[in-house]
Amino acid sequence: MKIFSGTSGKFLAEKIVQNLGTELSRLEVFVFPDGEKRVRILDKVLDEDTVVVQSTSSPVDENYMQLFFIIDALKRGGAKSVTAVVPYLGYQRQDHMFREGEDVSVKVIAEILDTIGLDKLITVDLHSIKIKEAFGIPAVELSALPVFAKVILEKGWRKDSAVLVTPDMGGIRRIKILSELLNNMPFAVIEKNRDLETGRISAENIEGKISKKAIIVDDMISSGKTVAVAADLLKTRGAEEIYVFATHAVFSEKAPKILQESGVNSVYVTDTVFVPGEKIFPKLKILSVSKLIANELGD
Ligand code: R5P
């Protein structure tokens, strides 16, 4: 098996190959003066099973184009199979038409990947269960929840003193799984509203009892507003310590400041998305999913 990486997957791909006791294979991405790119695979892939690691976070379109070109180059090089490890699958939130006249972005992405000959997709914590159905090829969804459960247990946070909280209804599946991993830790659900025109987020109600320690669990953090609004509400319901566990650090420009200034104690994310130095803030803790992915590839 030969493992390659696009530019946005490098930081994680290096940890994955380290876990597998191997090295990254080589490719070159050449950027023309007008911004177009050309990919060249530098190692032989004829009759090889190949893997490409590329996270499709910001700049989303650029990272997707690079992924498409790498898959095409591997196919043209005669690879027996191409598996894409896309730890964060960009456009996954647009998985259906929210309003008449909209596109279904993730379906378009899935169709392109199918059409260019990708054999298998491996990704981490999808926004909804139906995203996998958009793909005509096998799609494996790994979960960072066991990584979160391990930290929570190591911290000694137990079900008699802590409550898991999903900041919206869409997170119920996720929070039930984590609750089971934590010996049925109780959970609460925030009723969140997002105005599709203005993007404004509001939350006024919580279903479930809140303990002094609240653990917010989400699939991703983008603007950071969901976390900030949830933390404010939890404080009014008696939470004194608030921790956040979110898989994908899709941080927009202002997210680090919003999160640092919010009422939460720490924000745990994973390395499915690379967090550059300027987006690191004191409350941030980064966990790794490299072992999960390496185990899947090694199977
Ligand atoms: C929404 O349904 C997701 O699960 C996240 O809660 C959301 O994408 C977070 O976005 P933001 O950080 O912009 O509030």
Q: What do you see in this structure?
A:
With 299 residues, the chain is of the alpha/beta class. It has helices at 10-20, 60-76, 105-115, 145-154, 172-181, 225-236, 255-261, 290-298, and strands at 2-5, 27-31, 37-41, 49-53, 81-86, 120-124, 139-142, 162-166, 187-194, 201-207, 213-221, 241-249, 266-270, 284-287. The strands form 3 sheets. Strands 10-9-8-11-12-13-14 form a 7-stranded mixed beta sheet, with helices on both faces. A 5-stranded parallel beta sheet has the order 1-4-5-6-7, with helices on both faces. Helix 3 (105-115) links the parallel strand 5 and strand 6 (120-124). The longest helix has 17 residues, at 60-76. The termini are close together. The structure holds ribose-5-phosphate.
